[in-house]
């Protein structure tokens, strides 16, 4: 399995869950680099099932502020313009239903270039959008339930939206 950070990937080559997991971990590492550029350091990496990362930064008063993130890599969003928000898996609550993360971070790799999009929205804001639009677009795939949102809706309600270009080997 090759990394996708240099642009170009083919989901059809994924053999199993481990391939998808590896791609997701690469996405988390890309977000780590991005957050580092913003002045945040990685405090912890997925040590619990409550969130994927905790980033910390010093405030103007030299206090350390920690913020937790759930990070999702969505390979289809570049083509469908939709983000999939997981809420159940194998008949049990999962994803947005049980997260304790402060923020949801979506990385959308480009299938053809090195320009990858990162969208960050507070968990509270995303849950409010789900309440407002829950019945509109609910889908299931492979025993996983998720809400589909046009990515522009998330961008319009989110805290941060950047397109980043990955240069060199960051992973």
Could you provide a short overview of the structure?
The chain has 171 residues and is α+β, with helices and mostly antiparallel strands.
Features:
171 residues, alpha+beta, six-stranded mixed sheet, four-stranded antiparallel sheet, 25% helix, globular, disordered C terminus
Question: What would you say this structure looks like, in words?
Answer:
The protein is of the alpha+beta class. About 25% of the residues lie in helices and about 35% in strands. The chain contains 4 helices and 10 strands. Strands 1-2-3-6-7-10 form a 6-stranded mixed beta sheet, with helices on both faces. The model is unreliable at about 165-170 (pLDDT under 50).
Number of helices: 4
Q: Order of strands across the widest beta sheet?
A: 1-2-3-6-7-10
SSE string, helices as H and strands as E: HEEEHEEEEHEEHE
**Rg result:** 16 Å
- Report low-confidence residues grouped into runs of 5 or more: 163-171
User: How many angstroms does the end-to-end distance come to?
Assistant: 13 Å
Mean pLDDT across the residues is 75
What quaternary form is this?
Answer: single chain
Which structural category do the helix and sheet elements fall into? alpha+beta
Q: Report the biggest beta sheet as strand number plus sense, adding barrel if it closes.
A: 6 strands, mixed
Please estimate the helix content.
Answer: 25-40%
Shape: globular
Tell me what portion of residues adopts beta-strand conformation: 35-45%
Count of β-strands: 10
């Amino acid at each position: 399995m090759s990394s996708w950070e240099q642009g170009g990937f083919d989901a059809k080559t994924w053999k199993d869950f481990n391939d998808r997991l590896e791609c997701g971990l690469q996405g988390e590492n890309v977000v780590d680099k991005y957050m580092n550029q913003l002045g945040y350091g990685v405090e912890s990496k997925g040590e619990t099932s409550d969130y994927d990362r905790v980033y910390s930064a010093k405030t103007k008063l030299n206090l350390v502020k920690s913020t937790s993130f759930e990070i999702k890599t969505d390979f289809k969003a570049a083509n469908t313009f939709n983000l999939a928000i997981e809420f159940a898996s194998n008949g049990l609550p999962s994803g947005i239903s049980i997260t304790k993360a402060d923020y949801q971070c979506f990385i959308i790799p480009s299938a053809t270039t090195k320009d990858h999009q990162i969208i960050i929205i507070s968990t509270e804001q995303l849950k409010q959008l789900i309440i407002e639009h829950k019945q509109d677009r609910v889908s299931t795939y492979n025993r996983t339930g998720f809400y589909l949102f046009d990515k522009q809706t998330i961008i319009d309600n989110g805290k941060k939206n950047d397109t980043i270009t990955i240069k060199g080997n960051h992973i």
